[in-house]
Design brief:
The chain is α/β, with parallel strands linked by helices and 415 residues long. It contains eleven helices and 18 strands. Helix 9 crosses helix 10.
Length: 415
């Protein structure tokens, strides 16, 4: 028995710090009381399964040369030259978003600064020498980002909860809003318990003049060798005096988006996961078409507000072509007449402004698909500026009141 305890203690000592910590004590007791927890695990809405059995085929795909080449950019990903001065001036409208790549977004809303899923590390992995590596540099150094009122974490996977980033933020005064159970990781890494706001689905916390609500998502959790499903995953609603925004985290499509929209929406902007999807895990990540459907559900079925695609372009986490999520989003938005924002990493924009960044910037650095890039209509203003001009052949800044008309949707592969 003593030898068994010694072996167990030795294995715990070898556990990488990035694995975090398992919930225990009162935190675990609260988890057991959650209506979303049953039979020892958190449950998904609509009974979504985990992607068991898919990883073998996923691994095989990396040995297929053509697929591997298309899954990464062919050139240098353009990063917007954001400066501290750009972010220091308050947004004229009261709402500004800056996509830092993948699912990391700085949201400035009604005088508060919210940082979603910050990942500033080079790899989304527990190890510094292995795992998916960043495909473009971080647009703004974390140390020069400026003060943040609250950091919001959607779930504990490595591409959303990054140990070196959290350790750096632990040395600031920021608060952390996290799903139930995730606080165990942060406390293990040095975040004081009094700076944690740990929420179950449909629970709300106030930070200054904004409210943050954890809402359902269809995903799973885990960082270590044993994924015990003792940490919750969530999407997030942030509401200020004048504006409302939504961040999807990672999720498969489910009918609950309509319920979230009815209870907390509509939103000035939604940040929706549209990358790293596959036919091998259709229940836990959305395709661009599903992401656009989720956006409309959140808006009560109307193409209002701005949808910004997230969870793509920064890390290679699936086998679909690198540019496909962006292209698929453009196609899906055109088919439904929805307004989208397509900023380069690090490019600030105001969702309620007259125009938002809408150029398919990735085309200059992606491997061109067979048959070339699909035609993309310009805006009405660009067409009057000159037929056949370069500006008329690509989407630039899309005016709020001139969303593109609906057309036949183009098919986009799912994996």
């Amino acid at each position: 028995m003593t030898g068994s305890r010694s072996l167990s203690s030795g294995l715990r000592a070898l556990r990488p710090a990035a694995f975090g910590a398992d919930p225990s004590g009162e935190r675990m007791a609260r988890i057991r009381r959650s209506p979303n927890y049953a039979d020892g695990v958190f449950r998904n809405p609509e009974g979504a399964p985990r992607p068991d059995g898919a990883m073998l085929e996923f691994a095989r795909s990396f040995f297929r040369k053509e697929e591997r080449a298309r899954a990464a950019p062919a050139g240098v990903v353009p990063v917007h030259a954001t400066t501290l001065a750009d972010l220091a001036a308050p947004p004229a409208s009261g709402l500004r978003l800056t996509w830092m790549g993948h699912s990391s977004v700085l949201a400035e809303i009604d005088g508060h600064r919210v940082l979603f899923d910050p990942v500033w590390g080079e790899r989304c992995s527990p190890f510094a020498f292995a795992g998916p590596k960043r495909l473009h540099p971080v647009p703004v150094p974390l140390a020069t980002l400026g003060p943040v009122d609250v950091v919001v974490i959607s779930h504990d996977h490595y591409d959303h909860l990054d140990l070196p980033t959290i350790k750096a933020l632990a040395g600031t005064d920021t608060l952390f809003a996290v799903p139930l159970g995730v606080g165990a990781h942060l406390e293990h890494w040095g975040v004081p318990a009094d700076r944690l706001r740990e929420l179950d689905w449909h629970e709300t916390t106030k930070v200054g003049g904004i409210s943050l609500t954890a809402t359902p998502a269809r995903h799973f959790c885990g960082r270590g060798l044993r994924n015990t499903q003792h940490t919750l995953w969530a999407s997030w609603v942030v509401a200020g005096d004048e504006h409302r925004i939504y961040h999807s985290g990672d999720t498969g499509y489910f009918t609950g988006f309509k319920d979230i929209g009815a209870e907390y929406g509509p939103f000035d902007a939604t940040m929706i996961q549209i990358g790293a999807y596959s036919e091998f895990w259709p229940d836990i990540h959305m395709t661009p078409e599903e992401g656009m459907r989720a956006h409309l559900d959140l808006q009560g079925g109307k193409p209002t507000g701005v949808m910004m695609p997230i969870h793509w372009a920064t890390f290679n986490l699936a086998t679909h072509p690198w540019a496909e999520p962006g292209e698929g989003t453009v196609t899906a938005a055109r088919a439904l007449g929805a307004r989208i924002a397509l900023p380069r990493p690090g490019e600030p924009f105001e969702p309620t402004a007259e125009t938002v960044p809408s150029e398919p910037w990735w085309r200059g650095v992606a491997m061109e698909p067979k048959g070339g890039w699909p035609a993309v209509e310009g805006t009405a203003d660009e067409k009057t500026a000159g037929e056949g001009s370069a500006a008329a052949e690509t989407v630039r800044d899309t005016p709020r009141d001139k969303a593109e008309g609906a057309g036949d949707p183009e098919s986009v592969p799912t994996g």
